[in-house]
Every structure is written in structure tokens, then in C-alpha cells.
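Researcher: Next sequence.
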Amino acid sequence: MADARKLAAAALLRVEADGGYSNIVLNSALNTSEISHADRALASALFYGVLDRRITIDWLLSKHIKTPLKKVAPYTLTVLRCAVYQIAFMEKIPESAAVNEAVKLIKASGERRNAAFVNAVLRNIIRTGTDLPYGNDVRTLSVRYSCPEWIVKSFINDYGEENAVELLSQSLKTPPVTVRVNTVRTTPERLIKILEENNVKAAGTETENALTISITGDITALLPYKEGLFHIQDTASQTAAAVLAPKSGDHVLDMCAAPGGKSFTLAEIMENKGEITACDLYEQRVGLIKKGAERLGLDIIKPVCADASVFNPEFGQFDCILCDVPCSGLGVLRRKPDIKYRKPEDLSALAELQKKILKNALLYLKKGGRLLYSTCTLRHEENEKLVNSVIMEYNDVHKAYEHTYMPHIDKTDGFYCALLIKEDNTAIG
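Model: Next structure:
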């Protein structure tokens, strides 16, 4: 198991040092290693567990380390975090094993002089216990749910204390694996049977054509996936696509499409009839859309490299537009825990970019057309407030529908969508 712990620590150190995407960093580390299936599982659990609980872990460590944690040698601190996660949150791992393996890793590293320090800190934590503070003040909630104080404050200010606590609690839970059935090629009933034949349990949901599946391995390795019978997508995104409700034959624009999930769902709703222009700023990500559409057999999707914030008169006008803008991602913390460690000042330009994209999208919308603005965040500034501020500038645009999906209420990821209609005044009289 030492290899698993070493791999997890190295990957965590790389994320912190380079600011890389956690899933990419871990997958790269796993794909270049030769460790066993059991060790891969442990490495993954440690890696994501430490990312999820780092604020809590650091609070426990700070009670037993006199100097600021930022002054502790980087690898030593990372090994300590992994060990504390095992002690506090992994019941099946003996506390003694967590300590001994951590000491071994330090002794085998360039920071071997810290072995006694690591041993002492971890044994003190075991001796004093890992109980967490209770209370609903911002600091306590931050420690208990391992979430930065600025996010705690944001949730409380926007949704109230009770909802904030629920959102924080949900952020630490394991999300379900949800897929969208490719209705161009199969049905939910048939796909359930096919998945069961591949030793994968699947069940229907309240969302039409959505299934939850139970799988421990790589979902993309499944034959039904390779055959394009489904794509991975949370039910909130699927429901939002249904709200836009494009018809067969419609001309649709997906402003910020990559990696393409919502474009795929829209194409399936349209029965693969019509045309979807699916845009992304980066050529590599446009390639992901193209690859996914080909796998699913959705030939109405036309991937295009384009800046969603800049008007392109060659695009023409569209019946329906999906405007799923870049956002702070606070609705998907349980899937992407590294989002928590972004600095709040990094988000300052987001609302302006979102507003610019939305106003540009309205230029492409036909009279009588429908536009869905959506985000996977839970911040009024990026959602309700932004939409309201934009539509106040237009006499011919109104909001027909609006909903914020809450994980503890809707059993989905956190998600916001608003359906805007451009009025066709020429039809009057």
C-alpha cells in the first residue's frame, strides 16, 4: 500500500504546486504507474479525500504544529494530510498503519529529517482525538465542512443559514453517476438490460431518459458507452435542456458547448433532425465535441471554434440558443473539490464575461425564439441578478421560466437556468 500513498501524495503535491486540474493530474499519475487495482483505489480515495477535507485536516494539524502550516516542508505537509485523512475519515485503515506508512514515506524522501516530527504530530492527533467543532458561525462551518469561509458566507447570504448548511453537507457526499440515454439509438428499458448484461446495475430516475448506474471502474471502458448508447450527464443539465425544448428541424446554437454533453442531449431531443452549432473557444475542446457526437451518431452537431463573447454575423439567426456560461462552479463542489481552493478575487471578472456572452447570444436569437441561460453555480451574482440586469436593457425580451436546482432538494447538482423569450411583436394584429 506504500506505493498508493506515495502516488497520492505526489499527485496532491503537483496539484498544489502547479494548479492543475485534479482529475487530469491523478489520471496521469495512475496511467503511468504499475500499481495493483487495490492500490489504485486507495490512491484515488486518498487523493480526492484530502482535496475534499483539506481545510478540516489543516485545522486538526494546526492544533499540534506550532509554526504556520505554510512553513512546513511541502512533501512533509502533504504526507501528514494523507495520514490525518486516514486517521479521521478511513475507518478500515488502522491508525498505526497510517502513522507507520507516513513515517516510511518521509524517511525515503529528501525530507527524511522530518520523520520524528511526523511521527509525533500524528500520534498526538490520535491521542487527543479528531472531534470537530459544533456551531453555525462561519468559521465553525468552514472547518466542519471543509469549505472556505468566503463560500460559506456566499451560501448564507444568498440562501439563508439552513440551506447553506445543507449545501455544505451535500458538498462532501459522493454524487451519483447519472447518464443520459441516447434515444436516437436505444430506449431506457433496453439500455438497462444491456448494462445489466455488462454487470452494471442501472435504474430509472424521475427525469425522462436519465439513468443512475452503479460502477466502480472506468465507465468509458464499457461496450455500451463505446457504442454510443449513452453519455454521462447530471439530471439537472438534462432537465435544463428539456426546458429549452428545441423541436426537430430547429436551428440551435450552443454558445459554450465543450465537452458537448448539453449539445448531445439537445440533439437527442431533436431526434437528430435540424442543426446545432456547438461552439468553444479552444480547438482542442472543439475536438472533444466532435469526437463525442461521432460516438453517439449525432450528425446534426456542427462543432465550431468561436469566441462566445464576440458577435459573428456569419452565424445568422437561431430558433433556440443554449447559453451555458463559464462560472464559479459552486454547484458541483462534490464532483470537483479543487474548485473550493480558487481565490474569490479570481471570480471578479466572471459576471462581466457572463453578461457579455448573454448579450451577444441575444443578438443571434430570432424573434419568437427561446434562449436558456444556465450555470452550474449557486451565486445570485452569476444567476438571478445577472439575468435580471440584462433583460432590463431589452424591451423585447422577457423571462418565461427560472429555477435553481439545489442538491438537497432536487437531488441533483447545484444548477441554475432561466428561459428567455424574444418577443415577436410583428405577429401582433
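Model: The chain has four domains: 2-128, 138-170, 175-232, 242-427. The longest helix spans residues 37-62.
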